[in-house]
Task: structure prediction
Amino acid sequence: MSHSDLEKYEANPVNLLWDDILFLPVVGMVDSKRAQDIMDVLLEKAEQTAARFAILDIRGVAAVDSAVANHVIKIVKASRMLGCSTILTGVTPAVAQSLVNVGVDLGDILCTARVKDALSLAFRELGIEIRPVASD
Result:
C-alpha cells in the first residue's frame, strides 16, 4: 500500500459497525478529491464485506454546498450498484436549509438526523430487533 493510499484510508475510516452495516464518519472539508477518496474506500469495504447498508455521517463536515451534495449522490448511487444502501446521517438543520436553498435534489436517499436513527433504520430493514434484557 502506497503512502497516499494509507493517507486515504486513515482520513476516511470505514468500519464494520454490525454484520452488514458499515459506518463512515466524515469530518472536515470535502472537495472533489476527498469525495473520490470517500467513494473509493466505501466501495472497497462494501465489496469486501458484502455489507447491505453504509451509514455516512456528515455531522462533522464543515460546509455542504451543491458540489458536496452531488458527490454524496454519486457515492450513494455507486454503493447501491454493489447492493449496499447508504443512509445519510448527521444532517443538521443548517445543512438541510442550505441543501434546500441551493436546490439539491437528494431524491430517494435515506436521510436521518442522528446515527442512532440510521442504525435503527438499518436494523429494521435487516430484521434485527434490539431490546432491553430483562433483569432479575
